[in-house]
Design goal:
Mean pLDDT: 92
Distance between the termini: 38 Å
Largest sheet: 2 strands, antiparallel
Low-confidence stretches: none
Shape: globular
Order of helices and strands: HHHHHEEEEHHH
Oligomer: single chain
Number of helices: 8
Strand content: 5-15%
Amino acid sequence: MIKIAPVNLRSFKQKVRHHKKKFKRFLTGLGKKAPPGLEVLTAKLEKEVWKEVDCLSCANCCKTMTPTFTPADIKRISAHFGETPDAFKKKWLKRERGGDRDWINKTEPCQFLNMDDNKCSIYEIRPSDCAGFPHLPKKMKDFAHIHKQNVELCPATYRIVEKMMAAMDQSGSRQ
């Protein structure tokens, strides 16, 4: 079994500062016009990335972001705590400002994150937004706008975009 090196958030944040504009420009291009074979490349690179990035050594998503809680999430998680959905929302959630006014965490870091080991205390019933994060297997073209945000916060997203840019440079298919 290969040992994955822990994520060094300080080093990661420095790399993000240095490459952020270039990565966002690249993702904007993908959102406008994806090259042929992008989904096959994404699937290949995603497998590589998860061999390189240890989420439990990072948990930056849980520390700096909040998921959107769907009605199904609220129902499932509140039942786990033996609370009504309304009581759960009152205790843990708030309405997002503007936009769709989704239900989000009241606090950051996430109240369900165990800061000692970066594990989620409700992992088995976590919000669907958390279960899908960082949304790498989604269609890269359709999720480019989400990856533009996540590239700054998630080492796995950063790494897949970095690998994608290198692969496209080598194949000459980069915009």
